[in-house]
Amino acid sequence: MRYLIQKSTALRLARFGSLLTLMGALTACQTMQAMMGTPEPEKKAEGAAPTVEPIPVRSARASMIAPIVETRETITATGYAVVSIQNHKTPAQKRLLAIRASKLDAYRALTEQVYGQHLDATTTVADMTVMSDTFRTRVEGVIYGAVLVSITPAGDDTYETTLSLDARVVDDLRALYLGQLASNIR
């Protein structure tokens, strides 16, 4: 058990280290853009002390989130579920279960957009030939403030649910997530 806890802590530290490295790289890119885009200052008379203009650099967190949030006021996600595969006897109950499943699928899709996906891939190669390729994805996060846009039948046997989330809520969720990551490392 102790080994599992140590391994889990090591994985969290590795993930946090990767996140910090990415944040540093993004900050460096922002700094380079700001430096390259800054016009030459006017030359002053001889003997005057040179002035250094501060370079506006956004925080790494803001630079990671900005491309997604700045382009849209809201993000939307759509989930689907098939009625006939729901595990119940009556058609009405199957429809209700399909509606619920499509809503959960929409929440999963929304969570992917807010937090991203954890992807674990394994490839086995023997005699220079790929023997197997395995991919596992995992999504984890908390969504609040989502607005139900629509629940509609899509065809004869499928329901479609669309949810939307305000960009400010997305920013808050990501800030809380990064804060949680930082507190888990300490």
Succession of helices and strands = HHEHEEEEH
Fraction of residues in helix: 40-55%
Content of β-strand = 15-25%
The main sheet orders its strands as 1-5-4
Instruction: State the low-pLDDT regions, or none.
Output: 1-6, 26-36, 38-44
Silhouette? flat
Number of E strands: 5
Cα distance spanning the termini:
21 Å
Look at the helices and sheets and give the structural class: alpha+beta
Mean pLDDT: 75
Please work out how many helical segments DSSP would assign: 4
- Radius of gyration (CA) equals 24 Å
The structural domain count equals: 2
Major beta sheet, specifics?
Answer: 3 strands, antiparallel
Write the layout of secondary structure elements.
Layout: H1 2-37, H2 60-69, E1 74-82, H3 91-115, E2 118-126, E3 129-138, E4 147-153, E5 158-166, H4 167-185
Antiparallel strand pairs: 1-5, 2-3, 4-5
Q: Which terms would index this structure?
A:
186 residues, alpha+beta, 2 domains, three-stranded antiparallel β-sheet, two-stranded antiparallel sheet, 48% helix, flat, disordered N terminus
Task: Give your account of this protein's structure.
With 186 residues, the chain is α+β, with helices and mostly antiparallel strands. It folds into 2 domains: 51 residues, no CATH class; 113 residues, no CATH class. The chain is 48% helix and 24% strand. The protein is built from 4 helices and 5 strands; from the N terminus they run H-H-E-H-E-E-E-E-H. The protein has a 3-stranded antiparallel beta sheet. Strand 4 and strand 5 form a beta hairpin. Helix 1 packs across helix 2 and helix 1 crosses helix 4. The longest helix is centred in the first third of the chain and has 36 residues. The relative contact order is 0.15.
